[in-house]
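It is worth pausing here to work through a concrete case rather than discussing structure prediction in the abstract. The textbook approach is simple: state the sequence, then state the predicted structure, then interpret. We follow exactly that order.
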Amino acid sequence: MNAAMTMKLLRCFSFSAVVLLAACAWAQDAEPDTAAALPLDTIPPAPVTGLSARDYVDNSDAGDKIELTWVLSPDDGGGAEDVVSYQLWRSGGAEAEWDSLGTAAAGETRYRDEAAEPGVDYYYGIAAFDGANYSERVSFGPVAGRANFFQSSRMSVLVLMLVFFGMVLVFTKLAERGADLFVRRIPGLNAIEEAVGRATEMGRPVLYVPGIGEIDNIMTIASLTILSHVAKITARYETPLIVPTARAVVMSAAEEVVKEAHAAVGKPDGYNPDNIRYLSDAQFAFAGAVNGIMLREKPAANLYMGAFWAESLLLAETGFEAGAIQVAGTAMVSQLPFFVTACDFTLMGEELYAASAYLSREPKLLGGLKGSDWMKVLSITIMTAGVVLYLLNPDNAFVAWFSSW
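Step two, the predicted structure:
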């Protein structure tokens, strides 16, 4: 191809490109701008109704919270269905300027102002927004927040607590006056006596571990009550009782409990203070020392009563391998599975406290036990009545009183 032919082809190509570009430009100018032709949204959404504001009361109320509630705009989920949010304003007076407070999403019917000054009167306004227009502003006021010592919306909790304490006091007074309050015998007590009897028959000691809790732990106190019962049985049968402790004060208390138990059955000379031992207040050092006692002195019965943590499985597994009959009792929910797995019988949760009340017949323990039992009956009755009434009428006053908060 020569140069003349090449130039001719280039001129033809350039001309075609110019014609094509001109045609595209003409077509674009000729096509109507549909976007510009769309009508602008000039119709505002319908305003909200039922705007209300009140002092908000919570557990740490300082009077700095005010809660706003309203009924949705008819265009929120209905009508034009174009509400995208709600704009809220706050004013310090009827004639004062409005300050922007915040926004609430479409579908929301409440907003909490958490930056109010206690005791200051405020006016609140709200308008629905559709992305282009605001509805007519609806206002409410004045309303002021104030610090509240008592949260009236939880009156039901106060009433139930007063009823519970009243039950405890009544049953405690009845026990102090000698009333025969029935307490079911816990099957675990039979297991404890059987374990002690087995140790006596085999001529081997009984190991009683009162947990590793301090003396102010309620489980430790319950354990010492059960220890008194066990010490009386072992003293009567002249069976050695070994009590390892992890706290010095618990050791002193255990010494007094065991000594009094021997005196109560008429065998004070059978008390051996060397069997009440302080080992260590370090958790796993204590567990290792108790395991050593199991392997050296081979007790036929191991009793674990009180507060236990991760050492529970170490103790129970060692006792199981040693072939001892084992009875445990604790209110530590996380440790119950280990005791249930490795022990022959387990007092679970409140059974530990019920056993101590049954054995001691102490009026305060009996009053607490009977009061809590009757409170459970009342709670079940209230819940059952609430479910039935809610099914009949979800808006009844009884259900609202318990669920208002």
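Step three, interpretation. Residues 181-361 form a domain with the Rossmann fold fold (CATH 3.40.50). The longest strand covers residues 98-105.
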